[in-house]
Amino acid sequence: MNAGGQVVVIARVLLPPGRDRLAERFELLEGGLEATREDLLSMVPGANAIVPDPSVPFDTEILDAAGDQLQVVANFAVGIDNIDLDACRERGIVVTNTPDVLTEATAELAMALTLAAARRMSDAERDLRAGHWRGWDPAAYRGIEIRGSTVGVVGMGRIGARYAGLAQGLGAKIVYTSQSPKPEAESEFGARRLELRELLEASDVVSVHAPSTPETKGLIGAAELELIGPEGVLVNTSRGPLVDSEAVAAALENGKLGAAGLDVYENEPEVSPRLLEAPRAVLLPHIGSATVPSRDGMASAVANNVIAVLEGEEAPNRVV
Ligand code: DGY
Q: Residue 54 Cα, ligand 1 centroid: separation in angstroms?
């Protein structure tokens, strides 16, 4: 029932566990996967809630087009770097995200990338499929083992901590960087907090789990990759701007980096052509949270947040 005549705009797509609950209560406008920015600008006037996703830059132009009745921007993601938070704060608009439900999926994907990159799986599979496999070769595709290695976790939040638990389960020693000490990770995994440079020097694997902010932009560039080194593995499942793709491609080409496993890129869905050609790189299309329970849980969290705000309650996952 939509007693108040409230309108919810889904910028692209919201999965049924969230979408259907919103449709029962509100008028829904949905852009679809191919929606352009112009489509979004034409849908938002009069909206009470808007549901963007990480691929939708959400800025003052959209806020202006939406109008003063807009109450909540419910991002279909835990990352909120696509949203101009200050602009929403200034206008008193609530911003929400979808934490927790994707922790396991994203940490597991980071571990899958760790193992796939450490064991050169992309190169090996590509060669096999191309008919280049000439039989068992003792020197081919040699990588590192996680047991006994040092795994560096950049950003010990929920996902970083779960990834650290998985790495420790495989027998790795854990070091981490974080703005503040994480006593739980230290007692649970024996994790040691280091400065970034020390972590890069000490680690066989470096996995990035920090948010995308102006401070973390370009966190891992050519100099940092050299510290990870010719046997080292870099994994990024956080956001593209933290890692310089061109620098990764160059370091893989010239042997300064052992391997890379990447799920995110600076200008998605574009990926550096040089990176696509680079050896020892496992590249995935931003699928960190792509499991059924995770994506359904995210959709459901979006609906919980929208319903709470439009019904005058506190949103469960309010960030602004
Ligand atoms: C998020 O929630 O921030 C993820 O990147 C989406 O998969």
A: 7
Is 239 designated active site? yes
From the candidates 268, 277, 311, 313, give the one annotated as an active-site residue: 268
Q: How far from chain centre, in Å, is Cα 292?
A: 17
Residue with the nearest Cα to atom 6 of ligand 1? 77
Please, are residues 233 and 144 in contact by the beta-carbon 8 Å criterion? Answer: yes
* pLDDT tens digits, one per residue of 155-214: 999 999 999 999 999 999 999 999 999 999 999 999 999 999 999 999 999 999 999 999
- Distance between CA atoms of residues 306 and 255, nearest Å: 49
With a Cβ cut-off of 6 Å, ligand 1 is lined by 54, 77-79, 102, 288-289
Give the per-residue SS3 of the chain.
CCCCCCEEEECCCCCHHHHHHHHHHCEEEECCCCCCHHHHHHHCCCCCEEECCCCCCECHHHHHHHCCCCCEEECCCCCCCCECHHHHHHCCCEEECCCCCCHHHHHHHHHHHHHHHHCCHHHHHHHHHCCCCCCCCCCCCCCCCCCCCEEEEECCCHHHHHHHHHHHHCCCEEEEECCCCCHHHHHHHCCEECCHHHHHHHCCEEEECCCCCCCCCCCECHHHHHHHCCCCEEEECCCHHHECHHHHHHHHHCCCCCEEEECCCCCCCCCCHHHHHCCCEEECCCCCCCCHHHHHHHHHHHHHHHHHHHCCCCCCCECC
The Cα 76–Cα 180 span in angstroms is: 27
Q: 200-246 pLDDT, tens per residue?
A: 999 999 999 999 999 999 999 999 999 999 999 999 999 999 999 99
pTM for the full model? 0.97
